[in-house]
Amino acid sequence: PLHLKACLSKEVFYHGEPIPVTVTVINNTEKTVKKITVSVEQVANVILYSSDFYTKTVALEESEEKIHPKSKLTKIMTVLPLLANNRVKKGIALDGKLKDEDTNLASTTIIKDGIDRTVLGILVAYKIKVKLTVSG
């Protein structure tokens, strides 16, 4: 089998802070892993009028370091989600107006116990996604 483990150094990251993702791949297959892709996705849940989810990739890092059959690799890949790299994308949630200089990607919505989610309008979260591309 092919084993993938991804770890973050901490639970909370702030605007402009690089996110190091420690990726460990154990390749016990007969195939070669050709590429590792780490991405950050912004998930916006619009609950104002429905419960629509919009997912946009806001940071991406790729490594084409090969992992041959019956071998292992541990690598730190760093992603940095910034508005500056996403200005041309449509549908991304922001803190502020696009034209303002101090605007960032929207912060994650923190919901405390007892708060009605529907009054918040848009809930924002981020997820790290790791993808392996295998030959043949």
Which descriptors would you attach to this protein?
about 140 residues, 8 strands, about 0% helix, elongated, G protein-coupled receptor binding
Mind explaining what this structure looks like?
- The protein is mostly beta strands and 136 residues long.
- It is 0% helix and 50% strand.
- It is built from no helices and eight strands.
- The protein has a three-stranded antiparallel β-sheet with strand order 1-2-5, with no helix packed on it. A three-stranded antiparallel β-sheet has the order 4-3-8, with no helix packed on it. Strands 6-7 form a two-stranded antiparallel sheet.
- The relative contact order is 0.29.
- Helix/strand-derived class? mainly beta
Range of strand content:
over 45%
Helical fraction? under 10%
Structural Rg: 18 Å
Total number of strands:
8
Mean pLDDT: 91
Low-confidence stretches: none
- Main sheet overview: 3 strands, antiparallel
Number of helices: 0
What form results from the Cα inertia axes?
elongated
**Distance, first to last CA:** 15 Å
Order of helices and strands: EEEEEEEE
Task: Provide the spatial order of strands within the biggest beta sheet.
Answer: 1-2-5
